[in-house]
Amino acid sequence: MVEEYGAASDRSRDHGSDRASEQEDDMTATAASAVLDRDGLDALVGALVAQGRTVVGPTVRDGAIVLAELTTADALPYGWGVELDAGRYRLVPREDGAAFAHSAGPQSWKSYLHPARERLWSADRTPEGQVTFTEHTAEPPSYAFLGVRPCDLRAIAIQDRVLTGGRYEDSGYGGRRRRALLIAAECTEPGATCFCVSAGGGPAADPGYDLALTEVIDDEGHRFLARAGSEEGARLLERVPHRAADPVTEATARTSVDAARDRMGRALPATDLRALLSGNPEAARWNDVAERCLTCGNCTMVCPTCFCTTTEEVTDLTGDHTERWQRWDSCFDLDFSYLHGGPVRRSARSRYRQWLTHKLATWHDQFDTSGCVGCGRCIAWCPVGIDITEEVAALEAERETETD
């Protein structure tokens, strides 16, 4: 678990009340825009593969839209969307053939930048009784992430701050992050569990991407408005077939993204969440949610910003070889807060309260930002359908009742 923190990385941005105007400005950035058709998008993937990059993007597998390695853009989920609700996720066909008209799936890019298990070092004992240690620092892969949602782009910026912005960098994360190229896909189809606008974000991509794509489907055809956000992104765009952006495509792209802002499925209350969560540790609502919460940790596993880890030693049967692995941990785990004599947070009530309070309140104290980007994964993938926006609204209503 990271305890030190410091200044934000250059790619991180605080969530301010002027988010909407900043996103609008970004949509009209002075950098030249281009238009790719489906063949151009496939050429983009081919160019990335030719560079020796591992291209990762959304695809359909096992009844869901998941992240996987791609060798061609044909593997993208063309013609598929999703239906979401609390504790519910369904893949549904679309008639328009869109590739990026779906909400966030069960995985985030955290799975690649901050993997669930990572070997740190190993130790071997020789027949003479000597012990040698080997640090495992393999060359990090050169990733190209295709189809990064704006909420996930913000999540990556938050993890940059947490894992590389302090005195002690997570070197594994840092190495993978520095070699990763980010291709954002702006949101035109928010889902029923999305609430990024009320979390300080929105459907437009913030700076931090190398390329940003906005999918456009109308009478003029199926195409992607592309904008470069870095020199590397601009060079990549030059290598693939494209044409200069036309006013119709730019206007349609802007309208689609603006309309998505007004179609969020959920919203956090418009209140001071830091004061609400930190100031009400004894609220009765914590008991209510504890009766439903399974403390399974699903919400922390699918969350794109949760970062906590633990380490474990793995020894072979001979006792002559051991390895230390870092793996994801969760504040819902009973042993997560274990000290001499037992865990500090024994009850489901205390563990859920810890997670939600840290995510929306004390994260600000550590990292100068919220830990929530409003992707809605914790709602969709909770087995009992606990809704973070509903819980916060209930806490706010209880506080107002007590102050009347």
Descriptive account of the structure:
- It is a single chain.
- The chain has an eight-stranded mixed sheet, with helices on both faces.
- The chain contains 13 helices and 16 strands.
- Mean pLDDT is 90; it is low at 1-30.
- It has helices spanning 19-27, 38-50, 110-113, 150-164, 171-178, 231-238, 247-261, 273-278, 285-292, 298-302, 348-367, 377-380, 388-403; strands at 33-36, 54-61, 64-69, 80-85, 88-93, 117-125, 131-135, 143-148, 181-185, 211-218, 221-228, 243-244, 309-315, 321-328, 338-339, 342-343.
- With 404 residues, the protein is of the alpha+beta class.
- A hairpin with a 2-residue loop joins strand 15 and strand 16 (342-343).
- Helix 9 packs across helix 11.
How many individual helices? 13
Shape: globular
Radius of gyration: 22 Å
Spans of 5+ residues with little confidence (pLDDT < 50)? Answer: 1-30
If strands are numbered along the chain, what order do they take across the biggest sheet? 3-2-8-9-10-11-1-12
Q: What share of the residues does DSSP label as strand, in percent?
A: 15-25%
Largest sheet, in brief, is: 8 strands, mixed
Q: Strand-and-helix sequence, N→C?
A: HEHEEEEHEEEHHEEEHEHHHHEEEEHHH
Indicate the structural class.
alpha+beta
Gap between N and C termini: 41 Å
Query: How helix-rich are the residues, as a percent range?
Result: 25-40%
- Kindly state the number of beta strands: 16
pLDDT averaged residue by residue: 90
